[in-house]
Every structure is written in C-alpha cells, then in structure tokens.
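Key result, reporting period 2: structure in, sequence out.
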C-alpha cells in the first residue's frame, strides 16, 4: 500500500477490531507523524534527531508506542460510549459479520426493553470488544547498510535490521511483524537475538511473525529456516504474484488457485514439520514453552473483490483470513490519501494502472498514471534534468559508477548512466530506448510518503511535494470514496460496491494478468529464447504451469458451481492464448524436402 497510506491506519480502525499493516521503511515520515499525533492528542513529544545513536530504531519504537497509546485511548472511549445511533460502540457492532456471536447478541440486546437484563447484556457486549491487530511490515529487500561518521559499518545498523529492532522494542501488544519480498538471512538471523519473539509464561511469543509468500515451497523453506532458530511463524500470508498492489513478485506462471490447493493438501504436514523443528530448537536454547501451539494461520490477499470470493476461499481452502488492501484507498476513514490522488483513484480505468518498471529496486511495480510524481518526472526529463534529488536514500543499492551505493532514480545515477550510453551507442533509436529505460525510474521514498504530508498539511521534504501511489488492478472495480462502514458492508456481502460490471472473478483476472505478463516477456526476449537453454526452460515451465492452472480451474468451476457463465469462455480463450504463445516461442522445425 506504500508508505504514507497506512502509516496511521491503526489509529483510525484498530478500535473497531479491524487489523491493519503499516510500513516502517521511512523513519523521517514516522517521526513526522509522531510529532503530528502527539500534538493532536496533547501527548509528550521529544524529537529524535537524524544522526543520533540508533535514531532509526528509536524513531520507530517511539511512534509505535504512541500508536498503541492512542489506540488504547480511543478504545476506552469506544467501550464507554453509549449504545445510541452513530456512537463508536454502535458502529463497532454494526460492522461485524451478521453470523458471529457478538453480532447476534448485539441484535438481541437492541430488541430488549429498558431493563436490568438489557444493562447486563450491554455490560457483556462491552467486555467482548477487542482491538484489531497492529501489524508492521518490513520489505526485506530494502536493507541498505549504514555507516558512522568515520565511515565504519554500523553493526546491526542496516535499514531493515534497525526497523526490526525498533518494532521489537515497542509496546505494541496484539501485533505481528510481516516480512515481505523474500528471505533475508541477515534480517532473519537478527530475529534470533530479540526476546520479543520467544515464549513467555502464557504465550508462544510476545510478538508474532508473519511471512508473505508466493507459494507453498517458499513457506516451507522460510518456516524451516526460522523454526531451526527457535522462531515460530504464526501466519503465512499468501499474496497473488501479479494481482496485488505495490511491488509485484510474479511466479513462473503458478496461479493462486493451485497454490491455495497445495496449502490445503499439505497444511497438516507443514505444521507437523515446523512444530518438531521449533520444539527441538527451543530445547537446545533452554527455552520453555508452557502453552499449546495454535494452528498456523494461512491467509490470502490480492485482488479479492467480493464477499462470495472471500467466502469461497474460507470454506473451500480452509483459509483463516482474507486481506483487502487496494479498495481501502477509497476509504478516508481508514487510509491517508491526499485529495488529488483520491480523485485519480476514483476515475482510474484499466489503462491507468500500469505494471511498471519504475521502481529503483528493479522489481515490477504497480503504478497509477497521472500522479503529480509522474508529471514532475516528465517535466524533469523534458528540461534535460532527469532523476530525483534522493534525500532519503533508502533504495540506494547501485555501485555501477560509485563506491558508495546510489539510487537508480537519483539525478546522480541517471546523469552518469546517460553519459555512458551516449558514449557506447551510436544508433539513435536504440539510444533513445535505453535512455528512456533509465529515466523511467522514480523516487519512491518521498513519492510514497508525501500523501501524509499533503493530507495533514505538514512539511516533509522541502520543495518535494509530488505523490505517487501503487494500487493493485482491483482499484478499477471501485469508483467512489466511501465510509469505513460502507466498505465493511461490501466485504460482508450486505451491499455491492463493484462499479465495473465486466469484472472478472479474482482467479480469472490473475490468469489474464499472467498472460499479459508472459506476452510482454516474449516480445522482449523472443529472439534469445531459442539459443538460451535457461530461458527456454523458463518459458516451458511457465507455459506448463499456466496450462495446469487452466485445467485446475476448469475442474474447479465445473464442480463447485462458483462464478458466472462467462468463466468457461474465459478459460477456453485463455487456453487458446497459451497455445498461441507456445507456438510463437517454440516454433516447429521446418520440414526438410529430400
């Protein structure tokens, strides 16, 4: 969801029992928001200056502590509010799913006449309200090394490690650290040093570990790696490789339905293997586990858009929970989006959401066209001043021209690279194309933070106010900003907010995203495939996985009676497209005339 968009979501929704995730990659944004909210709630604020000892971790700890304090304040207000229309506690129970016990008791209480029994029921309901989990995300790939004033590497001072330390030292209670973007051995190794992730008298851990994964194999590998260290993964969060927001980590054509089915089939084995490793590792560390290990939560996110889709994943695959991200960008009560960008989100169509090459990480990145950041980038290019100032440097990893890493979106890098290209390439068409691939990289540290600065009218980085945003393709199915209660009603199937009447089922949408992705790769690499054994194998595997996915969905949709009548046609058409791509990539050998 980006840096700013959920930076204060927990403050807004945790009191209603709604769980959320905030990114903690940008400590300057975090310090800005801490100063802001301390002022709003008249709470103490002491600045933590950049450059002071372990300032990144301390800023994160201080902000998370403040978030928990504010959530506690708002939660107590909710618990003590009256059961009257539009009150916080009425809103809490009105948003619950219809069939849960708390909702049934609430409806029963409302029907009672004023009496001691009704007051007793109100008291019971007040004791049933819970806070939503305040989860924190670390993108494992954003782990830049940091150095002291003497140029010496700071031990355990890299960006991701410092962020993890800041989280571990915080007072968050009902909380998980969410690792995304793959395994980082240094980061996972540092987990082993932190008491917050080991058992205490009544819990497996004081803070939970959640890992975002693309498939079962990734879950097993990462789960084993941590279990051997005595670290328990409470949740594996499956995310669609392409039907998501932000950075997109595509699989080799392995689709969400078959991935969920593999988890369903192997879930018991996964728990058994990890539990044994975990208990053995705890024994070796003389750590004592005084409680029973609960089942590992398997959750899924990415492109889910309707109550029926979410319910099917719960019922058929045994999923513990579903994540909804992109639609909440249109809920000002939940996310922080500036007014101009909100309007762009409301008006977004398929052509506006681009699977871009804009990220300096070199990973595909979903991007909304027409943002102020896109306009600013183009203006700089036209003014022959491409690139960004790069004040934050969290994505500075390139050492092609410099000993000290720099960001590929920076002015420094792009000038050096363009000069190199001009010296190497004489063909004007090719040179223009290569330069365009350099200048399309865009500053994310500032661009994904500025919405909070604009929304709250707080200065962030002087003279840098452009905003970029990274919704998933699902945004085109929602076309207006709505209240929190309205979005929750949509999720639970009480109303329908889908504005795109031609919206495809989440599984079918992902399938076609992969087909588009494969077509793009083939156009780029078609001439190299025949002579490159590794690439040839990749494409054969990709196409095989797509074919297997289509066959799986043909069986699933025929037997489970889900979706509408168009699904069969979509699958038949997808099969034809896959065959056409196979013929394009692996052209048959010409016949020889003897």
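The corresponding designed sequence is given below.
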């Amino acid at each position: 969801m980006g840096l700013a968009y959920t930076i204060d979501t927990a403050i807004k929704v945790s009191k209603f029992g709604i769980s959320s995730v905030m990114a903690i990659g940008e400590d300057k944004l975090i310090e800005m928001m801490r100063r802001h909210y301390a002022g709003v709630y008249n709470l103490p604020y002491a600045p933590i200056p950049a450059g002071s000892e372990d300032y990144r971790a301390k800023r994160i700890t201080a902000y998370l502590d403040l978030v928990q304090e504010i959530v506690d304040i708002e939660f107590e207000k909710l618990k003590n509010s009256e059961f009257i229309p539009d009150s916080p506690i009425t809103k809490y129970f009105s948003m619950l799913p219809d069939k849960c016990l708390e909702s049934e008791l609430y409806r029963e209480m409302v029907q009672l006449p004023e009496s001691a029994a009704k007051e007793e029921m109100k008291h019971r309901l007040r004791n049933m309200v819970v806070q939503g989990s305040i989860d924190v995300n670390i993108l494992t790939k954003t782990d830049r090394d940091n150095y002291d004033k003497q140029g010496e590497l700071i031990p355990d001072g890299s960006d991701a490690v410092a962020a993890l330390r800041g989280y571990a030292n915080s007072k968050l209670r009902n909380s998980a650290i969410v690792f995304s973007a793959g395994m980082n051995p240094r980061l996972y190794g540092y987990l082993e040093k932190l008491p917050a992730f080991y058992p205490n008298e009544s819990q497996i851990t004081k803070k939970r570990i959640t890992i975002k994964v693309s498939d079962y194999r990734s879950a097993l590998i990462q789960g084993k790696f941590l279990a051997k260290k005595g670290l328990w993964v409470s949740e594996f969060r499956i995310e669609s490789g392409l039907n998501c927001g932000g950075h997109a980590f595509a699989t080799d054509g392995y689709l969400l339905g078959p991935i969920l089915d593999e988890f369903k089939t192997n879930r018991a084995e996964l728990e058994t293997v990890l539990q044994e490793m975990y208990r053995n590792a705890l024994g070796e560390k003389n750590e004592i586990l005084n409680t029973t290990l609960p089942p590992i939560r398997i959750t899924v996110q990415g492109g889910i858009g309707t109550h029926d889709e979410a319910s099917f994943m719960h019922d058929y695959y045994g999923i513990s929970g579903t994540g909804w991200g992109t639609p909440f960008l249109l809920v000002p009560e939940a996310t922080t989006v500036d007014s101009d960008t909100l309007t762009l989100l409301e008006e977004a169509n398929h052509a506006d959401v681009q699977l871009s090459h804009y990220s300096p990480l070199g990973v595909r990145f979903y991007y909304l066209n027409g943002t102020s950041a896109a306009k600013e980038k183009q203006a700089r290019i036209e003014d022959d001043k491409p690139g960004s100032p790069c004040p934050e440097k969290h994505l500075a990893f390139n050492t092609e021209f410099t000993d000290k890493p720099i960001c590929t979106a920076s002015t420094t890098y792009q000038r050096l690279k363009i000069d190199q290209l001009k010296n190497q390439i004489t063909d004007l068409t090719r040179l223009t194309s290569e330069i365009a691939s350099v200048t399309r990289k865009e500053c994310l540290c500032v661009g994904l933070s500025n919405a909070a600065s604009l929304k709250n009218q707080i200065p962030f980085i002087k003279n840098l106010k452009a905003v970029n945003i990274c919704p998933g393709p699902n945004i085109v199915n929602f076309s207006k900003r709505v209240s929190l209660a309205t979005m929750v009603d949509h999720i639970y199937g009480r109303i329908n907010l889908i504005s795109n009447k031609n919206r495809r089922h989440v599984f079918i949408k992902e399938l076609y995203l992969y087909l588009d992705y494969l077509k793009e790769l083939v156009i780029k690499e078609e001439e190299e495939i025949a002579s490159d054994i590794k690439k040839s194998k990749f494409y054969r595997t990709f196409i095989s996985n797509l074919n297997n996915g289509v066959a799986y969905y043909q069986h699933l949709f025929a037997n489970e009676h889900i979706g509408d009548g168009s699904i069969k046609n979509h699958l038949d058409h997808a099969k034809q497209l896959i065959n056409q791509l196979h013929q394009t990539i692996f052209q048959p050998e010409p016949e020889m005339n003897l």
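The mean pLDDT is 95. Residues 512 and 574 are 7 Å apart (CA to CA). This case is discussed further under Risks and Mitigation.
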